[in-house]
Write a structure and sequence with these properties.
By secondary structure, this protein is an alpha+beta fold. The protein has two domains: about 75-260, no CATH class; about 270-425, Reverse transcriptase/Diguanylate cyclase domain (Alpha-Beta Plaits), CATH 3.30.70.270. The chain is about 60% helix and about 10% strand. The protein is built from twelve helices and seven strands. It has helices at about 50-65, 75-110, 110-140, 145-165, 180-190, 195-220, 225-260, 270-285, 305-310, 315-330, 355-370, 400-415; strands at about 1-5, 25, 295-300, 335-340, 345-350, 385-390, 420-425. It has a five-stranded mixed beta sheet with strand order 4-5-3-6-7, with helices on both faces. Helix 5 (about 180-190) runs antiparallel to helix 6 and helix 6 runs antiparallel to helix 7. The radius of gyration is 32 Å and the shape is elongated. About 25% of the residues are buried.
Amino acid sequence: MHKAPCTKPNAPERFGALKSCRVMPKPADESPAPTPQRRQPTPSPPFMTPRASGELRANLTSIRDTFSNRHHSLDFAYSHAHYLRNRVLAVGVIFLLLSPLWALVDAVMLPRELLDTTLMGRGLLLAGLAGVLLLAKLSRERIGRIRLSAGLLLALPAAFYALILILLPNDEVVRLAGYAFIPFLLVAALSIFPFTLVESLAAGIALLWLLAFAQMVDGSWLTPAGLEGLWLLASLLVVSLAANHFQLSLLMRVYRQATHAPLTGLLNRGALNLHLNKLQAWRHAEDAGGNPPACAVLMMDIDHFKKINDTHGHSVGDLILSEFARVVTAQTRTDDCVARYGGEEFVVLLLNADRARAQDVAERIREAVERHHFPDHDHQRVPVTTSIGVAGLQDDEAPQQALERADAALYRAKEAGRNRVMNAA
């Protein structure tokens, strides 16, 4: 008797592969088949290169995230705005210092009647730059104002250049020293800021129009020198767009590593505390007639998680934590915040949710966890339940106190027998 050779099973059939090998009778006139030599597996390098399809998918996702801010979370939008604000303050100070120094060049190169016009324009530019710096400095938590200050910082020098081109006679424009460099300087400055590709592209197109207008005024439009200038500015714009993409991608990667738990992909405890503080500040800012938006905190943990680790091993415990995070996230809205508080504890921040709605969401999460199939390494179901404490955000309490009240409600749910929802007092 000999065994028929077994085909290599697919991944889902691996555990039942031995049963698929039948025992076949050996013919009488057949000589024993030589034993095939087992092929030694080639050792893989310690750091394997990802497949090209995986790299392509990652690059496409990165381009989607840097193309516009549509897919950015609110928490990253705040971090991005703070980073952008620091750049606006730094570059704004540089522009504010360089503008008066360039007036000395105008005093040497321009006649008196032209100098008065440029000095008036520079006075308006200095006042505008000072206003931009003040706006950026006062806009610590105002994302829209920070983005507006960044746009104005680039628009003001461009408007100053356009104003000078309009006010000066066409035959005197050629006497302006260094003004034609303004569009190139501003396109190069785009690479300093973590703008999205849409924002930089819009600014670049506007600066191309500015250069075309300047060439129409000085008579170089569609000349070899004019076309060379347009080509150079377009090339600088492409470089700036690439710099924006890589800068914003790096910022998003650093942000995610600093604020997200690697196992579950959820916000970590430090990011949760910041998010909760911003949520309370947002409620006070949206307060209309003493009636701020209702928000709630859910604190939950996995029942008997230590027993799961002891019975199935920590690797299965990690799988359950990751799957638990996915189940909880599926039961919440995109505006809500889901975070891993520590160990097997998780926190959900519900926006625009009163106590009754928070109770319904918590009960829905509890039922979804109880029904879900949490597998072990043999794809056998591991029974998992969760206990949840619910607390509404109060107007006169610190954000940390809401977490403490939700934690106290969670403790009472576990004392009452687990796998249940309790409201905070």
